[in-house]
Write a structure and sequence with these properties.
single chain; 34 helices
């Protein structure tokens, strides 16, 4: 299955120690029966021990032993290929985990700039702080450095021919050039005991001489670096042999280390150890105080994840060795590229990736293009478009997620929901202001070092010309901070070789500059004009080529910073501060829109059909804030805001006595309480629960609320937890979810939510059908073929019961063969069991697999609903050659109250019908129910007929 393989449907699996290749192998027949063409795996390379997601990669060229061996992977691939299925792998080119098992990182710590991998990582070796020159700041200490060293928590140890610094779970290599500090006292001590001509002692002296002659760790000449790398390994082998064969020398070395490790209570005894530590290629520091000075670029603000210079060809090759081998073997049929906005030059990366894929597939003679199926994790904001020059097949589907989610929200009720939120929470700020404040907070606290380095670079740019030399570092940093905080999308994509900026990126830069000016009315605004000129490549006259290159490098680094700041500021902060309708708080949401008109939905689908027909269509991923089913249920609140307002205030009154006062304020506050009620509505169990299940549910909600509070960074945070506040919120959640005679809230809540639950299920069914029939490749997150009312990770990464799903699917297949109409009628009577969703998914995916060209190449034509309930229907057709398909789904179900009871159908839809163009006349069969429809006139098709079994239909033309 080598070469270009376009999936018809993908299924995301989260591989980890709890779900391995062997376990996936067991259920390949199930995925095949479900209608999946391609399994879509989370990263499979070696990651940190116990990782549940795989993005903390330690070795990009080794399969993660916790999830299986290469042989296990081959067995899985063979099983897929036997059924005509494929495998898409998630890869992480942007960053690596720098835990102790990372061989490349350890080499850097041992050898500094002289390491063969020094340029693999995005390290600033010449930072402003003199003490950090040629060093890496390592924020691994759990308290101040002085306390750690005098508590004897830093210890020199010997292991297999090398010396290390041990600190709790960390083992850090010691620069070989500094080993003589340990070994020379041993020589002096043993001369009198063993004699100067002792063979072992002479060998030790020779080793010390060799160490003294190693090229220094600051040496960057390639030949000298190779020499150091070669000679240090020889020395390690010699030392290992010597200490194995000479117990007396080993004992003396251990004694020397003991002296260096100091004596607790004697401060001066640690001086030599401190001197040794100062000679290393790293500087140890307290993890809480390093954000201003950390000198390696991180993945967001995670100290353990360091950015890679994958823009360099040698780094690219080193990081992609395994994945290219798997592609060459035909084991991997597609790639998902993680966090593309963190890449230095995404377009260059995709071109290089496609070129290497073509080469390993034997297609190197072809011109550069899209030779291999690649999709990217790219968050498109608002009307932002994926760059058509990128050699990819689309995104991982967040753009579709927000589009399809929006059509289940009533747009005109946006102002009402907004007003309800503002009055309940007693706040009147807007989302734009919340985002601006959150992004500034990230730049001030979490990513201040990245901003600091960028400001330093901008200062050097300003010194290039007399027009800009008077701007101070502090003024540049402040202005830069506001421009980044005001940037309207994740990033722009200007390239170093560009001579001018394209219109889209130009508009983003100008928008950010103008917004930054508006929030700074009292300062000299010319500084923003200067920044704009740099970002738009408007160079002053007289610059050298070197100076222009430096300016371009600043632009590239600027672009790498806006993305993570937006992600941390919006997704991981603002989303947890502001949520009039929480189902809208999803990655890539358009903050200025409340709901999506049907016309916009159709227009976007037609654009996708033209430009990105094979992009992924997601409704639920490992990174979404809520599952598709939770989101679909919360959307129902937009249908009746007046009732939502009433119950909100009633619940607040009922639960008032459960709050506590903490430092003069009520906990939880109104804003937190508002989020809690939406969360309960979205995730409430479908069935009555026993005491044990209720306790488990309450525990999930408590954990979610604590995560939400920490992410909001208002009352507590991950860095500075406020345990008293967190405990008060946990207790509030536990009390209002505990049934007893005094808890009137629970009865009121469960009564209110029943119609919302039913409408949410119908929403989700409609959403699922749209995902499977709109232009693009439908993607299913693990377990979502049944109802999944999960929240943000780790709640959405719990194990999936595939055995149960497999049994249920077999049952449905048997019943569908007998009488599909009767089966649908039966399933719609009890939609809570999830079988209707599983049936819908399997039936439509089977049809997709049988008709791939219809979905991958077929046209898309909106169909017009007419009649009193026309706004409750979204419909379109797909067609290619003689194949025709009609898709229609219902929405806004609480306003169809009889439909919720499912009787009588005719009265619900009244005169509503679907107008079809004349060329679509013929006989049609509903793929789900098996009902047939004969359409042989221009008369519209009544919805009461199409929706006689369920509030959606997918009709194939049979003649």
């Amino acid at each position: 299955m080598a070469g270009l393989c376009i999936p018809t449907a993908t299924y995301r699996l989260q591989f980890n120690q709890r779900f391995t290749f062997k376990q996936a192998l067991e259920f390949v027949p199930y995925f095949n029966e479900l209608g999946i063409s391609t399994l879509y795996a989370s990263p499979i390379t070696k990651s940190r021990a116990g990782s549940l997601h795989g993005y903390d990669v330690l070795d990009s060229n080794q399969i993660n032993p916790e999830i299986g061996t290469e042989e296990d992977l081959q067995q899985l691939v063979d099983a897929l290929h036997q059924r005509g299925m494929g495998l898409v792998i998630d890869i992480v080119p942007n960053h690596m985990c720098i835990a102790d098992e990372n061989k490349w990182w350890n080499d850097v710590l041992e050898n500094g700039p002289s390491s063969l991998y020094a340029n693999h990582f995005n390290i600033v070796w010449d930072p402003p702080k003199v003490e950090l020159r040629n060093k890496v700041l390592l924020p691994v200490l759990d308290q101040q450095y002085g306390k750690v060293i005098e508590n004897q928590e830093l210890k020199i140890v010997y292991d297999a021919g090398a010396f290390f610094i041990d600190y709790k779970t960390h083992r850090l290599p010691v620069n070989p050039r500094t080993w003589p500090t340990i070994l020379k006292p041993v020589i002096e001590q043993l001369k009198s005991q063993l004699g100067e001509q002792d063979a072992g002692l002479l060998e030790l002296e020779s080793i010390v001489t060799a160490l003294d002659h190693l090229p220094d760790m600051t040496e960057t000449n390639p030949e000298k670096c190779k020499e150091r790398n070669r000679e240090k390994e020889i020395i390690k082998k010699r030392l290992s042999i010597l200490l194995e064969e000479s117990p007396r020398i080993l004992e003396a070395v251990q004694a020397s280390m003991k002296v260096l490790n100091g004596t607790k209570g004697d401060a001066h005894s640690f001086d030599q150890l401190e001197e040794l530590l100062d000679s290393q290629a790293y500087r140890l520091s307290f993890w809480r105080v390093t954000n201003d000075e950390i000198n390696y670029r991180r993945f967001f603000d995670i100290n353990e994840l360091v950015s890679m210079r994958v823009e360099n060809e040698d780094v690219f090759i080193d990081m992609h060795e395994l994945i290219l081998k798997l592609i060459k073997q035909g084991w991997v049929n597609g790639l998902r590229i993680d966090h593309v906005d963190g890449l230095f030059d995404p377009e260059q990366y995709f071109s290089r990736l496609q070129q290497h894929c073509a080469q390993v597939l034997g297609e190197s003679e072809k011109e550069l293009g899209r030779h291999f199926y690649v999709v990217v994790e790219k968050i498109l904001g608002g009307d932002e478009q994926l760059h058509k020059s990128w050699f990819v097949f689309g995104t991982t589907g967040y753009d579709f997620l927000n589009l399809v989610n929006g059509i289940f929200i009533i747009p005109e009720n946006g102002p009402k929901i907004q007003q309800i939120y503002e009055r309940f929470t007693e706040r009147n700020d807007e989302m734009d202001d919340v985002i601006y404040s959150a992004k500034k907070l990230i730049l001030i606290i979490s990513m201040s070092s990245e901003l600091h380095f960028l400001a330093r670079q901008l200062e050097e740019v300003s010194e290039q010309h007399r027009w800009s030399r008077d701007y101070t570092l502090e003024s540049l940093r402040s202005a830069l901070r506001d421009v980044i905080a005001c940037f309207p999308v994740y990033r722009s994509y200007i390239r170093t070789q560009d001579t001018q900026v394209d219109e889209e990126d130009k508009n983003y830069v100008i928008s950010a500059i103008e917004a930054a000016k508006r929030v700074n009315p009292a300062i000299d605004l010319s500084i923003f004009d200067f920044i704009q000129s740099v970002l738009l490549l408007q160079d002053p006259p007289g610059l050298t080529e070197e100076q222009i290159a430096y300016r371009r490098n600043f632009v590239m680094r600027f672009q790498q910073l806006t993305g993570p700041v937006t992600a941390k500021g919006v997704e991981d902060t603002a989303f947890y501060r502001y949520y009039p309708l929480a189902s809208l708080n999803e990655v890539g949401m358009d903050f200025k829109s409340f709901g999506i008109p049907a016309l916009t939905f159709h227009k976007k689908n037609q654009e996708r059909k033209e430009w990105w027909p094979h992009t992924m269509l997601a409704t639920f991923t490992h990174d979404t804030k809520r599952s598709e089913d939770v989101r679909a249920r919360i959307n129902v609140l937009s249908e009746n805001p007046e009732e939502w307002n009433v119950v909100l205030h009633r619940w607040q009154a009922l639960n008032q006595s459960q709050k506590v006062r903490l430092n003069g304020r009520e906990v939880p506050g109104n804003n937190v309480e508002y989020l809690l009620y939406q969360t309960l509505i979205g995730s409430w169990p479908l069935y009555a629960v026993d005491a044990s299940t209720r306790a488990q549910y309450a525990d999930r909600i408590e954990k979610y609320m604590i995560k939400a509070l920490k992410e909001a960074k208002l009352h507590t945070s991950w860095i500075n937890p406020n345990e008293a506040y967190e405990k008060a919120v946990q207790e509030f959640v536990r009390k209002i979810l505990t049934p007893d005679s005094s808890n009137r809230f629970l009865d009121d809540f469960t009564a209110y939510i029943q119609p919302i639950i039913k409408a949410g299920l119908f929403n989700s069914l409609s959403q699922t059908l749209l995902k499977m029939t709109c232009p693009g490749t439908p993607d299913f997150y693990q377990g979502s073929e049944l109802w999944e009312f999960t929240l943000v990770d780790p709640d959405n990464r719990r194990p999936v019961d595939y055995s149960n799903r497999e049994s249920l699917l077999h049952f449905l297949k048997e019943k569908a063969q007998q009488d599909p109409g009767a089966l649908v009628s039966h399933l719609m009577k009890t939609p809570e069991d999830g079988l209707i969703k599983l049936y819908l998914t399997s039936q439509v995916l089977a049809y997709r697999r049988q008709n791939p060209s219809l979905f991958q190449e077929g046209g898309y034509v909106p169909l017009e609903p007419i009649g009193k309930k026309a706004r409750h229907v979204v419909a379109f057709s797909r067609m290619k050659d003689q194949s025709q398909l009609i898709v229609a789904v219902g929405r806004f179900f609480t306003q169809l109250t009889d439909l919720l009871a499912f009787q009588p159908i005719a009265e619900v839809w009244e005169d509503t019908a679907l107008a079809l163009p004349s060329h679509m006349q013929g006989d049609f069969r509903d793929i789900l129910s098996g009902l047939t429809f004969s359409i042989h006139s221009d008369a519209p098709v009544p919805l009461k007929d199409l929706f006689s079994k369920m509030p959606l239909a997918i009709l194939e033309k049979i003649k």
